[in-house]
From TrEMBL:
Any Gene Ontology CC annotation: U2 snRNP
Positions of the RRM domain: 72-160
The protein's name: RRM domain-containing protein
GO BP terms: mRNA splicing, via spliceosome
Length: 344
């Protein structure tokens, strides 16, 4: 054994002034401090210890957690008992591209009661999360079949939190892990393509078809043209319909934005009503909501006013503003004068 006095003499000979020999070297001290601080950065769960030791793994896990938090599903209730699958697909496709299964079918689930009849509830899954917000703002408390008060839908974001409460429900998600990756990739690519086609130059609805291109629309238009809202016979049979219908349309469209004017053209056999909004975005939302819906058994056509259509109604100054407004007004004035001459 070494003599302690000899050891102390050697330490004194190699000592450096101002340095405490009892203090560990810097690298050793850093390691010890790190060990002491590690518990401060961990949570109460055992998973937290793993994530600290695997810094790279944390970066990979984060996007997965973010993806899991995104909710692209809408829960729908209040649907008529005779609702058709295709009817729901057509309705909710107006707000975005629907998610598809491996067979290419839209992910729309219609829930049934114990006796097999439709319960009136459904789950609609979109490809993108933004479509959920659009559907909630446009279709909530809206009639699936326009004019049918029994078809008013209630929408909410789908809540899957209950699936994490019990262990039994986790078995439902296991089959998803065995999905053919190649098939899934092809399906996603197909939906990405649909998404590109869905966004037109206005940012809403399916891409413009060659037929639509012949009726160029002004994307900044604040006026929506609604057709097949009434028949001329309806107006003849009920004199109060004109005012009542205008009020109904104003009330319905006000949920999409501020409405500044509603005009019913009682001389148009196509049953035309125009709705003017404060801003173009509200007008575009109105087109999505109203186009293709049914009102009193008739299929409504909704489009943005393109600046060229001319509609007629009883009274003066009843044309939409445009290049030919003055010419149209003169034509109607001449026609009125001709009627007076015929009476004489």
């Amino acid at each position: 054994m070494l003599d302690e006095d000899l050891v102390k003499q050697q330490q004194a000979a190699y000592s450096v002034s101002g340095v405490d020999e009892e203090t560990p070297a810097a690298p050793v001290l850093a390691r010890e401090n790190k060990k002491r601080k590690e518990p401060d950065y961990t949570s109460a769960t055992s998973n937290a210890d793993i994530s600290i030791k695997r810094g790279r793994h944390d970066k990979k896990d984060k996007p997965a957690a973010e993806r899991a938090s995104k909710n692209t599903a809408v829960y729908v209730s209040g649907l008529p008992s005779d609702t058709e699958f295709d009817e729901l697909v057509q309705c909710f496709s107006k707000c975005g591209v629907l998610e598809e299964d491996d067979d290419g079918e839209p992910k729309v689930k219609m829930y049934a009661r114990e006796d097999g009849s439709f319960s009136g509830d459904a789950l609609v899954v979109y490809f993108k999360e933004d479509s959920v917000s659009l559907a909630l703002s446009i279709l909530d408390e809206y009639e699936l079949r326009l004019g049918d008060s029994s078809s008013v839908m209630r929408l909410s974001k789908a809540d899957f939190s209950h699936k994490n409460a019990g262990g039994g429900t986790h078995t439902e998600a296991k089959p998803r892990k065995t999905v053919d990756r190649k098939k899934a990739s092809q399906r996603i690519g197909k939906m990405q393509k649909k998404l590109q086609e869905w966004v037109d130059e206005d940012g809403f609805g399916p891409a413009i078809t060659p037929e639509d291109s012949s009726h160029a629309t002004n994307k900044n238009s604040r006026v929506v043209v609604l057709k097949h809202m009434f028949t001329l016979k309806d107006l003849e049979d009920d004199v109060s319909l004109l005012l009542d219908l205008k009020e109904e349309v104003r009330e319905e469209c006000s949920s999409l934005g501020e409405v500044t004017n509603v005009v019913l053209y009682d001389r148009e056999k196509d049953g035309v009503i125009t709705v003017k909004f404060r801003d173009p975005l509200s007008a575009q939302a109105c087109v999505i909501k109203m186009n293709g819906r049914f009102f009193d058994g008739r299929r409504v056509e909704a489009s943005l006013y393109n600046g060229k259509q001319r509609f007629q109604r009883n009274g003066m100054g009843d044309e939409l503003e445009g290049e030919n407004a003055e010419a149209e007004k003169k034509r109607l004035d001449d026609f009125a004068q001709w009627l007076l001459t015929e009476e004489d």
